[in-house]
Amino acid sequence: MNETPKKRDPAIRISAMPSDTNAYGDIFGGWLMSMMDSAAGLTAARYSHGRAVTVAMDGMQFHQPVKVGDEVSVYTEIVNTGTSSMTIDVEAWRRERHRETAVKVTQATFTFVAIDDNGRPRPVQG
């Protein structure tokens, strides 16, 4: 899995901190999933020009651990849109603090729905 992410800007880039780890020093999977959901949410809100909420996520497989100090970059790509929904592919990559190469640690597909002020689905304005 020693690849390089496509030349694009990440939706989120963050350093993994000690408070994000389990007793063995690996980053919690839930923390990483939260970063991915946040990145997809930023993408969905920008694309739909308003509030959007997560309604589904496909299963994740962790290919590599993330350690304290690793730089985590989360990339998003909208792959499908419906009347009010957006399907977003999300990849998380890690880079050791003092290295140049990045490694993909997981990916998932998130589905978001654009909603209005009353919490009802609204058309995507993409």
UniProtKB/TrEMBL annotation:
Gene3D superfamilies, per database record: Hotdog Thioesterase (3.10.129.10)
UniProt keyword annotation of Hydrolase present: yes
GO molecular function, one term: long-chain fatty acyl-CoA hydrolase activity
Keyword Plastid: no
UniProt superkingdom: Bacteria
InterPro entries referenced in this protein's UniProt entry, alphabetically: Cytosol_ACT, HOTDOG_ACOT, HotDog_dom_sf, Thioestr_dom
One Pfam family here: 4HBT
Domain HotDog ACOT-type residues, every copy: 6-118
Keyword tags: Hydrolase
Span of the signal peptide: none
GO BP field: acyl-CoA metabolic process; fatty acid catabolic process
SUPFAM superfamilies with a match to the protein in the record: Thioesterase/thiol ester dehydrase-isomerase
A single Gene Ontology CC term: cytosol
Family: Belongs to the acyl coenzyme A hydrolase family.
Protein name: Acyl-CoA thioesterase
Organism whose genome encodes this protein: Altericroceibacterium spongiae
Organism lineage: Bacteria, Pseudomonadati, Pseudomonadota, Alphaproteobacteria, Sphingomonadales
